[in-house]
Amino acid sequence: MREIVFAIQQIGPYHHARFQALAKEMQVLIIETRPNDTTYSWETEFPNAIYKRVTYSKNIGTLKQYLLSKTVFICGWYDKEMLNILLAATLVKAKRILISDSRAADAERIWWKEIVKSLVLKFYHGALVAGKESEVYLRQLNFLKPVGKPWDVVDEKLWKPAIGITKENYWVFPARLVEKKNHAFFLSAFAQAIEKVENPPKLFLCGDGPLQLELEILVDELDIGHLVEFKGFVHTSEMIPLMQLAQWMVLPSIYDQWGLVVNEALAAETPVLISDNCGAKELIVKGENGYVFNDHNLLEILTKLMDRKHTFMGQPIKVPSGFRLEDFVGACKNLTLS
């Protein structure tokens, strides 16, 4: 059985689902560079794992042993740990695949950093990316090697609701309480929209972060505390039924390389309202599984969606083909064999 290695910072529930699926067809070893990171409060222990996991070692000799005769997927550009793994993989002539969600629109691009990225890319034999914009960015950096997708997927079976489930009158906004998720802008529009409709939905903010107090004050100022609930970090087991019963999932980020909660919502058969600044917008088919908004039309769309006369009525909600768990497995196999 062919062996494959993934170097990532930390295994979370999303990664576990992917690696479990892949390990059914290949031998999978995960090197965690920051297994004790506390940025996310998610689960990190998986006793049912059928893949192997080890903690990153600074010793080049140890890394070389892990990587010899393997295909190595390396997540990240500049982390020193990832660069060391890239070096070790190059020394043992392992096949090297970059994992990247980066898009040209994510930040102001500085010319000399782009040159450095182009040079780093020369050490890779291929790349695994989130979607179209990530692939386009690599091509702009003159990367001509094979590019596969998707990297960002979820286990649809885990999120699929029971047949005949009835949606409840609430929306869910699952995101860390940080600047880029654009909570303040959305809450202000939400406050205006609920004044125009009868029986407005509740809004559940699912996430923790440094802006908690600031956003709580804003909710009070907007006088929408009766409709907005801060749920804190919500673990996957609790998030699944919450997402399944929601009328809408919203992601209004100022920028988001992808936005995996979109995959989760669609898998849970919940339509999505997403900012045009998010990479995952390519999953949305207008009028079929959601809507993409910009800064100028959010209030108009919110008002229509809250008005029962404009309740979302489209085709069955689903994750588009090409962005499912089996597609991730296929992409990894193709990049390994190509």
Characterization of this structure:
The protein starts with a strand and ends with a helix. The model has no long low-confidence stretch (mean pLDDT 94). It is built from twelve helices and 13 strands. It is of the alpha/beta class and 338 residues long. 35% of the residues lie in helices and 18% in strands.
Features:
338 residues; six-stranded parallel beta sheet; seven-stranded parallel beta sheet; alpha/beta
Cα shape: globular
* Spatial ordering of strands, largest sheet: 3-2-1-4-5-6-7
Q: Residue-averaged pLDDT, rounded? A: 94
Report the order of strands and helices: EHEEHEHEHEHEHEHEHEHEHEEHH
**Helix content class:** 25-40%
Number of strands: 13
What amount of the residues lies in strands?
15-25%
Secondary-structure blueprint of this entry?
Blueprint: E1 3-8, H1 13-23, E2 27-32, E3 52-55, H2 60-67, E4 71-75, H3 80-91, E5 95-100, H4 111-121, E6 126-129, H5 132-140, E7 147-148, H6 156-159, E8 170-174, H7 183-193, E9 202-206, H8 212-222, E10 228-232, H9 236-245, E11 248-251, H10 260-267, E12 272-275, E13 290-293, H11 298-306, H12 325-337
